[in-house]
Amino acid sequence: MQLLTPHVYWAQRRGEIFLRVDLSDAKNLNISVEENTLQFRGQGHGAKGENEYKFSLEFREPVRPEVEHRSTQRQVDIRVRKQSEHWWDRLTQQEKKPLFLAPDFDRWLTESDVEMELKNKEEERINSIRVESRVPKDPFLGVKRGYLFMYNLVQFLGFSWIFVNMTVRLFILGQDSFYDTFHSTADMMYFCQMMAVLEVVNPLLGLVRTAFLPALLQVTGRNVILFVIFGCLDEMQNKAVVFFVFYLWSCVEIFRYPFYMLGVVGTEWKLLTWLRYSLWIPLYPLGTIAEAVAVVQSLSLFDETLMFLYKYLKFQKVHILFPPLYLKKGTFMHCSR
C-alpha cells in the first residue's frame, strides 16, 4: 500500500494537546511518543481513500510519554499531556507548520478565552452561593424527609405483605385462594388504604410536588371499592374479583413506594425507576378493568340489600344522604339521616 499523510487538526489547553486525525474506520493503530516526537501509523479511509497513513510531530516543548487515543467511525482523537502547564506559541519544534496540520477551530481556545471562561464560572458559583444564602433554610426539612421516608416505608411493607401472602396462597391453594382473599388480607389492605389518605394531605401541606387532584381521585376511587363495595357487601367478599383487584394494587405499590423512598434521600436506582414507570402501563389499565368488574357485580347486590347498606353505614356513624332510588314497586324512597 502507498503510505500517505492524513489531515490532522490540533488545539491546546494549559496542560494538554488535542489532536484530531481525519481518518475514518481506523484500524491497526500504532500511536506512541518517543523522544518528544509523536509517531502515528494506521489504516483507514482518509483523503486518499482506503490506505495506510502515517505522520510524526516533534512537539515545541517536552510532553509526557503516555498517549490517550480513541477511534470512532469518523476520526481518531488523541490527547497528550504537557510536562509543564502553560500555553505554547506553536505546536511543533520547527517554525514552519507541516502542510497536513491545521487548527481545530471546534476546540480552539486562546489563553484569554480560558481565563474568561474560568472567571465566568467563578462568578456564577459566587452568585449561586449568594442566592442560596438569601433563601431561608427550612428548619423542619429533616423532620419532613423523615416523615415521608417512614410513610413510604410503612406502605411498602404493608403492600409487600399483601403481595407475598396472596402469591404464596395462590401457589398452595391454586384457584381456591381467589375466593377467600378478602378474609385473609382485608385488615392489612384497610390499614394501607386508610394510610393512603395522607397522600391527599401531603400535597396540600406542600410536603410533596404531586398534584392534589390526581391523588384525591385515586385514593377516593380505591377507598370506595374497598370500604363500600367490598366492605359493605358480604356477597362481594367471596368473589374472585377481589383477588385481582388486591393483587394488581399491590403489584403497583411494591415498586412505587420504594421509588419514593429513594427519592426522599436523593438516591436513584435505575432498575427501580424503569420498573416504576414501565409496569404501570399494563397494570393501571388492568386494575381499572378489575375495579369496573367489581362495580358491575355489586350493582344488583346494592339494589337487593339497600336497607342493609343503610343500617351498616348508620351503625358506623357515617351520615350519608342517598339520592332518590327507584324501587321495583314504582315508588321512590329517601334514606334520611
TrEMBL record:
<feature type="transmembrane region" description="Helical">
    <location>
        <begin position="211"/>
        <end position="233"/>
    </location>
</feature>
<keyword id="KW-0456">Lyase</keyword>
<dbReference type="GO" id="GO:0005789">
    <property type="term" value="C:endoplasmic reticulum membrane"/>
</dbReference>
<dbReference type="InterPro" id="IPR008978">
    <property type="entry name" value="HSP20-like_chaperone"/>
</dbReference>
<keyword id="KW-0472">Membrane</keyword>
<feature type="transmembrane region" description="Helical">
    <location>
        <begin position="240"/>
        <end position="259"/>
    </location>
</feature>
<dbReference type="InterPro" id="IPR007482">
    <property type="entry name" value="Tyr_Pase-like_PTPLA"/>
</dbReference>
<comment type="function">
    <text>Catalyzes the third of the four reactions of the long-chain fatty acids elongation cycle. This endoplasmic reticulum-bound enzymatic process, allows the addition of two carbons to the chain of long- and very long-chain fatty acids/VLCFAs per cycle. This enzyme catalyzes the dehydration of the 3-hydroxyacyl-CoA intermediate into trans-2,3-enoyl-CoA, within each cycle of fatty acid elongation. Thereby, it participates in the production of VLCFAs of different chain lengths that are involved in multiple biological processes as precursors of membrane lipids and lipid mediators.</text>
</comment>
<feature type="transmembrane region" description="Helical">
    <location>
        <begin position="147"/>
        <end position="172"/>
    </location>
</feature>
<keyword id="KW-0256">Endoplasmic reticulum</keyword>
<keyword id="KW-0812">Transmembrane</keyword>
<comment type="function">
    <text>Catalyzes the third of the four reactions of the long-chain fatty acids elongation cycle. This endoplasmic reticulum-bound enzymatic process, allows the addition of two carbons to the chain of long- and very long-chain fatty acids/VLCFAs per cycle. This enzyme catalyzes the dehydration of the 3-hydroxyacyl-CoA intermediate into trans-2,3-enoyl-CoA, within each cycle of fatty acid elongation. Thereby, it participates to the production of VLCFAs of different chain lengths that are involved in multiple biological processes as precursors of membrane lipids and lipid mediators.</text>
</comment>
<feature type="transmembrane region" description="Helical">
    <location>
        <begin position="279"/>
        <end position="302"/>
    </location>
</feature>
<keyword id="KW-0443">Lipid metabolism</keyword>
<dbReference type="InterPro" id="IPR007052">
    <property type="entry name" value="CS_dom"/>
</dbReference>
<protein>
    <recommendedName>
        <fullName>Very-long-chain (3R)-3-hydroxyacyl-CoA dehydratase</fullName>
        <ecNumber>4.2.1.134</ecNumber>
    </recommendedName>
</protein>
<comment type="pathway">
    <text>Lipid metabolism; fatty acid biosynthesis.</text>
</comment>
<dbReference type="GO" id="GO:0030497">
    <property type="term" value="P:fatty acid elongation"/>
</dbReference>
<keyword id="KW-1133">Transmembrane helix</keyword>
<dbReference type="Pfam" id="PF04387">
    <property type="entry name" value="PTPLA"/>
</dbReference>
<dbReference type="GO" id="GO:0102158">
    <property type="term" value="F:very-long-chain (3R)-3-hydroxyacyl-CoA dehydratase activity"/>
</dbReference>
<comment type="similarity">
    <text>Belongs to the very long-chain fatty acids dehydratase HACD family.</text>
</comment>
<keyword id="KW-0175">Coiled coil</keyword>
<dbReference type="GO" id="GO:0042761">
    <property type="term" value="P:very long-chain fatty acid biosynthetic process"/>
</dbReference>
<keyword id="KW-0275">Fatty acid biosynthesis</keyword>
<keyword id="KW-0276">Fatty acid metabolism</keyword>
<dbReference type="GO" id="GO:0030148">
    <property type="term" value="P:sphingolipid biosynthetic process"/>
</dbReference>
<keyword id="KW-0444">Lipid biosynthesis</keyword>
<feature type="domain" description="CS">
    <location>
        <begin position="3"/>
        <end position="92"/>
    </location>
</feature>
